[in-house]
Amino acid sequence: MHNELDNKVILEVFDKIRRFGEPYEDGHMLEGIVARSDFDGYSVHLSGSGVSLQLNFHQSYHFDYATDTLKEQFMAKIDYIHRHFNG
């Protein structure tokens, strides 16, 4: 099975949201995507646009979404953050 996610990109986006985003509940928000991590840092969570993504320490991941369209919109925001926020 081919891994549909580039885990390095997801971790970079997580870091960019934490650095450039606004505080939001128990995480940070940037471009409508909320980034959170577990207290121990072994899992990171990205959510927004009706989609939730959990990336675990051993690089396994879990998506939760209702439609493919929502997932595509979410991934487009991830790509935008990855490409447009540097520093």
Secondary structure elements and pairings:
Layout lengths: L6 H14 L1 E3 L2 E4 L2 E5 L5 E6 L2 E6 L4 E5 L2 H17 L3
Antiparallel strand pairs: 1-2, 2-3, 3-4, 4-5, 5-6
Protein name: DUF3081 domain-containing protein
Pfam family, one: DUF3081
Organism: Zobellella iuensis
Q: What are the secondary-structure elements, in order, as H or E? A: HEEEEEEH
Strand order of the largest sheet: 1-2-3-4-5-6
What would the average pLDDT be, to the nearest integer?
92
Distance between the termini: 34 Å
What is the helix content? 25-40%
State the total count of DSSP E strands. 6
Structural class: alpha+beta
Tell me the strand percentage band: 25-35%
How would you sum up the global shape? globular
> Major β-sheet, in short?
6 strands, antiparallel
Low-confidence stretches: none
Number of helices: 2
Radius of gyration, in Å, reads 12 Å
Report what the structure shows.
This protein has helices at residues 7-20, 68-84; strands at residues 22-24, 27-30, 33-37, 43-48, 51-56, 61-65. It contains 2 helices and 6 strands. α1 (7-20) packs across α2 (68-84). A hairpin with a 5-residue loop joins β3 and β4 (43-48). A 6-stranded antiparallel beta sheet has the order 1-2-3-4-5-6, covered by helices on one side. The protein is globular, with a radius of gyration of 12 Å. The protein is an alpha+beta fold and 87 residues long. This is DUF3081 domain-containing protein. Pfam families: DUF3081 (PF11280).
